[in-house]
Amino acid sequence: MKTDKARKNPLVMFIHKLGSPPWFYGFTGKFIPWLWAVFAVLTIWGLYLGLFKAPPDYLQGESYRIMYIHVPAAWMSMMIYVLMAIMGFIALIWRIRTMEIMAMNSAPIGAAFTLIALATGSLWGRPTWGTYWVWDARLTSELVLLFLYLGVIGLYKAMDEPRKAARAASLLAMVGLVNLPIIHFSVKWWNTLHQGSSISLTGSKIDPSMLWPLLIMAVAMKFYYAANLITRSRVTLLEQDLRKSWTRTVAEDATGELKS
Amino acid sequence: MPAAFLALLRRDLLLAFRRRTELLFPVAFLLVVVSLFPLGIGPGPALLARIAPGVIWIAALLATVISLDGLFRSDFEDGTLEQFILSGHPLTLIVLAKIVAHWLVAGLPLVLLSPLLAIWMNLPMESLGVMILTLLLGTPILSLIGSIGVGLTLSLKRGGQLLSLLVFPLYVPVLIVATAAVMAVSDGLPYGAFLGLLTAGLVTCVTLAPFASAAALKISVS
Amino acid sequence: MNHAPFIWGSYAIATIVLLWTAVAPLISKKTAFKNIRTFNRARNQSRDANS
């Protein structure tokens, strides 16, 4: 029978199991230390190459090294938004609770990266162009992206019922995703309209000795996101399932008390 | 189906006209906001002329967001919205009818007031035609995108405050393109492409936004 | 202009934000465990009282 076959298919089973909060909690918990370890190794390696081995830039001197945190943060801010919208879409259509939780927990992480991108971009702008804030296409787009994140977080927090709130915020994230390229292009275009020439933060072509640390840091940030997302999602499950028996078991195992 | 659309449009317009004084609120807000700019910045004609397109458009954005709350609110509170959802008529058409009614009552006055605002802000007269055109094309876009935000925040107590945060990022492209069009006229540059973009945006929103709004309403009412 | 404070400042901000983002859920987790224990303790007490 078709359903028997589906039940025995390992991939289907796996996805099905991930929808169960206690199974999700137990399974993903095993990955967290490894994800943090990879993040730490890559970050140390990337920063070593970027801050100590790579030479100073011909045009910008040492300040270009801000790029090693600014650019990965900006990339992450956009990637997380896309993932959040996709997870929200899946959650909305298939009503999978763990998907809702992961989508909603992606928002603060994405907002944090956006904040870092804005702050480091501003600090990079001061020595490079002379002012702390420049309405260049990238920074302005990042600012609008921050507002989009705050909107999703705000909407989710404003509703009492978490599942309904997650569905509403997921719809908002999807609408924002559709608008994101439009916003990006319109801001980029607005910038060329009003400034004449386009300013590139990295100047001319990037040397490999400067590129490698950048890519390593970019990958490192992805592991940060994964580790943090899983940590946050597990905590959300604990909070929401306060009254269920599986959280009691987990709490007992964690603290070794309250066995009765 | 067109019969239901027209009936709903007629109903919403009737309801709006029964409270004629409330129709003036967005108008009054628009006038107040625009007049604040010269008061805050100084009446220098050259400066006002430079910022006129942006100021008028930003005021239009603010006025739209303020007026949007009434779009679904009263129907939500007395249960009519639930009846609409259960009625079997496509919710997207119902939403579209309400948005059209809302635009006629709240958006169109902005368009009609724009010559007065242009005079106040010392907008060059040759830009006025394009200004009116951008408002005519753009304010429906604002209503359409705004309806999605209203649908999402409908069940919240202070939804109106959150609404601004939600829709302003989505309004950014409209603002950029519309003001670029008006500024192009005074710079002597071609503006057709900007108007084309606004038209394309309008067509896209008319076809897609009602679906998103309807989905938002279903979530809020659930 | 000395570029060093800007570079240090950038990395400092990034470190603080990333550290806070990573640590905040751990604090919430402690609170969640505490609440779970409190809830179950209360439930056990009422069960013992009613049995």
Task: Give a short summary of the structure.
The complex is a heterotrimer of chains A (260), B (222) and C (51). By secondary structure, chain A is mostly helical. Chain A has helices at residues 2-8, 10-18, 21-29, 32-53, 67-94, 97-129, 137-158, 162-195, 208-240, 245-255.
Can you tell me about this structure?
The complex is a heterotrimer of chains A (260), B (222) and C (51). Chain A has one domain (32-238): Four Helix Bundle (Hemerythrin (Met), subunit A), CATH 1.20.120. Chain A contains 10 helices and no strands. Chain A has helices at residues 2-8, 10-18, 21-29, 32-53, 67-94, 97-129, 137-158, 162-195, 208-240, 245-255. The radius of gyration of chain A is 22 Å and the shape is globular. In chain A, 46% of the residues are buried. Chain B has 222 residues and is mainly alpha-helical. Chain B has 9 helices and no strands. Chain B has helices at 2-18, 20-41, 45-68, 73-78, 80-86, 91-120, 125-153, 159-187, 192-221. In chain B, helix 8 runs antiparallel to helix 9. Chain B is globular and about 55 Å long. Chain C starts with a helix and ends with a helix. Chain C has 51 residues and is mainly alpha-helical. Chains A and C meet through helix 5, helix 6, helix 9 and helix 10 of A and helix 1 of C.
Classified by CATH, the class of chain A is Mainly Alpha
Tally of DSSP helical segments of chain B: 9
Percent of residues in beta strands of chain B: under 5%
In CATH, the architecture of chain A is Up-down Bundle
What's the end-to-end separation of chain B, in Å? 25 Å
The mean pLDDT of chain B is 92
SS field, number of helical segments of chain A:
10
Can you summarize the main beta sheet of chain B? none
Which fold name is given in CATH as the topology of chain A?
Four Helix Bundle (Hemerythrin (Met), subunit A)
Let me know the number of strands of chain B: 0
Q: Segments of chain A where pLDDT lies below 50 for 5+ residues?
A: none
Radius of gyration of chain B: 18 Å
Instruction: Kindly give the count of domains of chain A.
Output: 1
What structural class should be given to the helix and strand makeup of chain B? mainly alpha
Shape of chain A: globular
Fraction in helix of chain A: over 70%
Class by SSE composition of chain A: mainly alpha
Assembly form of the protein:
heterotrimer
Regions with little confidence, pLDDT below 50 for 5+ residues of chain B: none
The biggest beta sheet of chain A is recorded as: none
Which two chains touch over the largest interface?
A: A-C, 39 and 28 residues
